[in-house]
Design a protein that fits this description.
The protein is an all-alpha fold and about 100 residues long. It has one domain (about 15-100). About 90% of the residues lie in helices and about 0% in strands. This is Oleosin.
Length: about 100
């Protein structure tokens, strides 16, 4: 079985120079097509982001008197939970160290 595989392997040393050039051209064209597609998708994403920002800005300005205090309250609540969790961990560690 190994000898059959040996004779069917493709060796680039025996391929013609024109086929190697055609492979390079095909690789270049494929990379160009993929790059162009990805660039187009990134342009669409940027356009959608800018349009959403343009549409959302008036809403944010109108509701900012409500949103800013709400954000402050949520931040303080989250900070309180993190602080209480840290105090709990410190208490457990201290308790475990005192029991040794």
């Amino acid at each position: 079985m190994a000898t059959a595989d040996f004779y069917h392997k493709r060796d680039d040393r025996y391929s013609s120079p024109s086929s190697r050039g055609q492979t390079k051209i095909a690789n270049f064209l494929t990379a160009g097509a993929i790059g162009t597609t990805l660039l187009g998708l990134s342009v669409l994403t940027l356009t959608g982001t800018v349009m959403a920002l343009i549409l959302a800005t008036p809403v944010l300005v109108v509701f900012s008197p409500v949103l800013v205090p709400a954000a402050i309250v949520l931040f303080l609540a989250a900070a309180g939970f993190v602080f209480s969790g840290g105090c709990s961990v410190a208490a457990i560690v201290t308790w475990r160290q005192s029991r040794r």
